[in-house]
Amino acid sequence: MKYDKSVKSLLAVIAVAASLLLTACSASNETPNGTPPVSDTGTPKVSGTLNLGGSSAQTAAQTTWRAGFQDANAAANVNYDPVGSGAGRTGFADGAYAMAGTDDAFKISDIASSDFKLCVAGTGIVELPVYISPIAVAYNLPGVTNLNLDAATTAGIFAGAITKWNDPAIVALNAGTTLPELTITAVHRSDKSGTTGNFTDYLSDAAASVWTFGRSETWPESLGGEAAEKTQGMRQAIEAANGAIGYLDASQASGLGMARLMVRGNAVAPVAEAAAKALAGSQLEPGRDDADLVFDINRVPTDASAYPLIMVSYLVACQQYQDGTTAELVKAYVSHVVSREGQAAAAGDAGSVSLWEDAALQRRVGEAAASIR
Questions:
Q1: Are 17 and 61 in the same domain?
Q2: Residues 102, 233: one domain?
Q3: Count of structural domains, the chain
């Protein structure tokens, strides 16, 4: 069969068009750099298993984040082990966890001296403040629905200097409330805990003349009281004893009495709005890398409506992972956690402060998250 030049030209055009169509179809299923297709939210779909561990205070938020992430990534699975902040950091450094949740960040000196097993040697770590929440001073005192405490009185209770609920120091802060002549059972964490670190930081900064034990994630051995493991153990110990008092993330203190803390003569409840005001009055620690966003919390705020006993809880990741698949999973999960949707879901379920309430902080966190590779 013979074709004239015009027919040959037409066939050539059709061939080129078909080639372009096939290329376009292929591109719709794969991005130019070979990453998986992008979901409706703009986050690449990923698959595989991601193991995290650490802060028990993050449990409620992590449950929410994991559910949302796995709904969007049906082939991905995220496990979170609430072993406590100290164990989480150790597990991350040793390579047992791809990421850690911690209520206390790594010290600068620890970062310099640590060999993070999953990270490329010589690269740094990323510490993202993803969960900002009040710590409740929770109590079990039948008949007492409202309780005010200040830093000095709280320090006296946990240092063992105040042992009865009708002590004059407590009575003076609670005019009109009948307090029983009941022995106080002060409950503290038995495990190495970032919540303990934040609690003792508050006592040390705001009541230094009474709390002389400094800041520590491990409860001072010289003090008495009842010990309980992890956040759930703390809650159970408070529930079990009339007259008990302890400290735990406010999201897990529902149903218990929660004291209001005195700030410049004002009684402030442990709610997200008041925690956000305390964070607004705090600064990032100097001397850290751009992706190491760790706060130095101001425990003596000038704003009388700020709740000073807050925790800023972090997700810790490698800046650069040795394994590319792990890096892809970590980056996708972190992107979900810090997204507007992820932060709003945690705020709704756990009562935390959304990063999106502070545009400058949200931008810094987003930039640090994007640096993971």
A1: no
A2: yes
A3: 2
Residue 210 phi/psi, 5-degree rounding, is -100, -45
Give the domain range for residue 26.
1-30
Cα Dmax for the chain? 111
Q: Which amino acid is at 51?
A: N
Q: How far apart are CA 325 and CA 36, in angstroms?
A: 12
Amino acid letter for position 216 = S
First vs last Cα of the chain: how many Å apart? 58
DSSP notation for 193-235: -HHHHHHHHHHHHH-TTT--S---SS--TT--SEEE-HHHHHH
pLDDT tens-digit series, residues 252-299:
999 999 999 999 999 999 999 999 999 999 999 999 999 999 999 999
**Which two three-digit tokens encode residue 77?**
């699975």
Burial 106-141 (b: 16+ CB within 10 A, else e): beeeebeebebebbeeeebbbbbbbbbbbbbbbbbb
Q: Indicate whether 55 and 5 sit together in one domain.
A: no
